[in-house]
Amino acid sequence: MIQQPTLGELLVKLRKKKGWTQEELVEACHVSVRTIQRIESGEVTPRTSTINLLLEALDYDTEEWKEFAKKDESNHSPFKLFKTMFALDLPENQLKKSFHDAWIAGILFLLLFIVDAAMEFILAEDRLLIGEIAYVAIKVATMGAYLLFMRGFISLAILFENRVLRISSYLSIGTLALVYVSDITFMIFFPSLEEFEGIVGALAILTNGATALFYGVGLRRLQDGMGKSAKYAGIIEIIMGICLLTLIFSPFALILFAPAMILEIMILSKADELASKNLI
To answer: SS3 breakdown of the chain: % helix, strand, coil, rounded to 5?
Structure first.
């Protein structure tokens, strides 16, 4: 079976090759126009019988389709999943669909980040109060929510051709992943190396600072398409980056974190609304 969005793209290509509208394809195969629209947009994967009706109407050889389907299935490897998760080589309609999940994931990430910060504070007082399983579970859940959240900004960056935002979004994901992986490593395997953990923490703060500066510039470049929320979010991220790079003022970055997140969630929510109206 050909997977979406490949099937939809193939049907659009075949239909346009014949010079047909969707309504003309309906007359030829007697499949509803709504169903054809949903298949072509990649929203649904139809039954084999429906696919056969569509392909026969478009004069596409069934045997050739079977070979095409086999090749497409072979492409759905772990690397394919990786490309999907990081919005690499996705069609425009798939990029737009990521906005809805992204702003919801942003809310979840903000809540999990607060829990994670509280957990780190408790851990600093008494390591025995936090179990290893709970610690790892919170870290993994937070990383997962952040990945989905940033995937929305990667999609925005691709649609608006914002190279700075795209690169800084990837850097932000990588930086958070490295910080959390090091946290888990020290918690489970090297709990006694507190001095070394402090050095790693300082390096993480500096790295986050540089990434936040870069990310803030990218957000500001979104203001023409996404309004003042992007402008103010970018300014706050830049200020956060400067605070983190000084190390001394890094606690102020934590104070600015929540307002920045709220503005960024608003940006993705607006993008979701605009995408649903085909305005972006």
So the answer is: 80, 0, 20
